[in-house]
Amino acid sequence: MDTTALKQRLDRFDGSESERRAVARQARDLADSGVFERDEGYQLTATVVLDQLADAPDGGPADRWNWWLGSLEVVHGAYSRFQVERWQEA
Fold first, then answer.
1. Residue 86 above 80 pLDDT?
2. Distance in angstroms (rounded) separating the CA atoms of residues 83 and 62
3. Reported pTM
């Protein structure tokens, strides 16, 4: 997971730098855990994240991330721990 590239490309969903960093960090944690790859059968990449977030109805990066993770939680379980609950603004 290239978190630097992901963080930069998340700017298309607006949100603050801190919010984008929090989403990228959770995406990296999810990728490192192997849970997504086990459940979906392919590697979690920045492109996969961005494609999934583009399907979300609206909101900033964290809202979109949490919407997608909520879908994964319903189907597979064990994804709520990767949701973004808060971030510290610089």
1. no
2. 8
3. 0.93
Q: Which amino acid is at 54?
A: A
Q: Where do the structural domains in the chain lie, given as residue ranges?
A: 3-82
Taking CA atoms, 57 is separated from 10, 24, 38, 52, 67, in Å, by 15, 20, 26, 11, 9
The distance in angstroms from the start CA to the end CA of the chain is: 24
Q: How many angstroms separate the CA atoms of 8 and 16, rounded?
A: 11
Q: Is 59 exposed, middle or buried (0-12, 13-18, 19+ CB in 10 A)?
A: middle
Q: pLDDT of 16-52, one tens digit each?
A: 999 999 999 999 999 999 999 999 999 999 999 999 9
Structural contact between residues 81 and 40, judged by C-beta atoms closer than 8 angstroms: no
Token pair belonging to 87: 């971030």
| pLDDT of the residue at 90 | 67
Residue 76: other Cβ atoms inside 10 A: 13
